[in-house]
Amino acid sequence: QVQLVESGGGLVQPGGSLRLSCAASGFAFDRYSIGWFRQAPGKEREGVSSISSYDGSTYYADSVKGRFTISRDNAKNTAYLQMSSLEPEDTAVYYCAIAPPFIDETTWSNSRAYNYWGQGTQVTVSS
Question: DSSP label at 11?
Fold first, then answer.
């Protein structure tokens, strides 16, 4: 069955970096777009970044542009989210999810476009 397992979260000081991984199994990884979402306590889940399997296009929330980088390694069935210059506002549970190939700038951040989700990994940015 489809499995998505996030890892790499933890406690980091402001200004620090983390790399999240999303290990996938049970489906043709290279045929699906990958999204990263996050949810902070008391807030709605929000789209952070996504990478299309169709043409490799990447999308970012304005709040993370220039600080986060999404990538994927189809040979390893793994997606990554490199996070730099972390801020306390980045504290949240981070989830990866998969969507059909044809996401674009209008759909990538809509959680309803994604079919399967991982269990999440906690990222805490604090001094």
Answer: E
Q: In which residue are the tokens 């390694």 written? A: 73
Any idea which residue has 């001094």 for tokens? 127
Mean pLDDT calculated for residue range 95-99: 97
Q: How many CB atoms lie within 10 A of CB 96?
A: 31
Q: 3-class DSSP state for residue 85?
A: coil
In 3-state terms, what secondary structure has residue 111?
A: helix
Give Cα 86 to chain centroid, integer Å. Answer: 15
Residue 42's identity, in one-letter code, is G
Residue 45 pLDDT class (50, 70, 90 cuts): very high
Q: How many Å separate Cα 10 from the centre of its chain? A: 15
Q: Work out the end-to-end distance of the chain between its first and last CA atoms, rounded to an integer number of angstroms.
A: 40
